[in-house]
């Protein structure tokens, strides 16, 4: 307990899935957390869930593709908690399509949310962390599919690969400022989005089994697996870690 006590975090995509699990984990370890998402109803549920065991959280409705919205979110976080120590760029979207069938509209949408949103978050997160004067930690959600790829995720893979690259540039910029920047690359994780997709299949049990067989560790990930990795990168335990691609995929990518 208390691995990020005294720290202030802003987590996007926090209404559900990995963002929600991450926000809960940081709050449970002592951080004050501003949870941000475009879904206000789910965001309020997440805030109440964090607060129930005594965690400290406020919510901010955020469209990560808007620079003005990012400016407001960061400013409100600093106004509410006095500083910004941790930024987790987790908001993301996915379209299943190959390079021929993907539409330019969905291509652009995925890049706006998955890549532009990370750029804007870092731009304004850097500013707040510099003003705070004590550095900080930025964790950008990429994917194992930002390193490897599949034939039917052309836009998603492109955007997540961009997150991988921009993280390294930002880490080089942030090093002298005491701001660490790392990317995290999950494999399949049992989030609501994945559960809904599998449940829609004709034989969901077989789909889960086939997914598990792709992983040397013998199972798909759980949200807590990823939240624990984010916690390490957010904490002072990783004070000598920057520019890292932290792959949390049960061995999927080493085959």
UniProtKB/TrEMBL annotation:
SMART domains: PKS_KR. It is an enzyme of class 1 (oxidoreductase). Residues 7-147 form the Ketoreductase domain. GO terms for molecular function: glucose 1-dehydrogenase [NAD(P)+] activity. Pfam families: adh_short_C2. Belongs to the short-chain dehydrogenases/reductases (SDR) family. It comes from the Bacteria. Keywords: NAD, Oxidoreductase. Gene3D superfamilies: NAD(P)-binding Rossmann-like Domain. Its EC number is 1.1.1.47. This is Glucose 1-dehydrogenase. It comes from Sphingomonas tagetis. InterPro entries: KR_dom, NAD(P)-bd_dom_sf, Sc_DH/Rdtase_CS, SDR_fam.
């Amino acid at each position: 307990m208390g691995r990020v006590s005294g720290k202030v975090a802003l987590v996007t995509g926090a209404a559900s899935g990995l963002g929600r699990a991450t926000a809960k984990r940081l709050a449970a370890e002592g951080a004050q957390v501003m949870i941000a998402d475009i879904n206000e109803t789910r965001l309020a549920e997440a805030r109440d869930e964090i607060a129930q065991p005594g965690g400290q959280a406020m919510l901010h409705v955020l469209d990560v593709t808007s620079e003005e919205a990012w400016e407001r979110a960061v400013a409100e976080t600093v106004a509410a908690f006095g500083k910004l120590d941790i930024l987790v760029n987790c908001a993301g979207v996915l379209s299943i399509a190959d390079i021929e069938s993907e539409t330019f509209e969905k291509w652009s949408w995925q890049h706006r949310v998955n890549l532009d949103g990370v750029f804007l978050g870092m731009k304004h997160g850097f500013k707040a962390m510099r003003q705070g004067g004590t550095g900080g930690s930025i964790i950008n959600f990429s994917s194992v599919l930002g390193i490897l790829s599949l034939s039917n995720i052309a836009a998603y893979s492109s955007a997540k690969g961009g997150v991988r690259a921009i993280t390294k540039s930002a880490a080089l910029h942030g090093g002298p400022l005491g701001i660490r920047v790392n990317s995290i690359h999950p494999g399949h994780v049992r989030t609501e989005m994945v559960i809904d997709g599998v449940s829609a299949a004709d034989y969901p049990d077989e789909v889960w089994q086939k997914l598990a067989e792709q992983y040397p560790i013998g199972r798909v990930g759980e949200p807590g697996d990823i939240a624990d990795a984010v916690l390490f990168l957010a904490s002072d335990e990783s004070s000598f870690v920057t520019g890292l691609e932290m792959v949390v995929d049960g061995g999927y990518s080493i085959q």
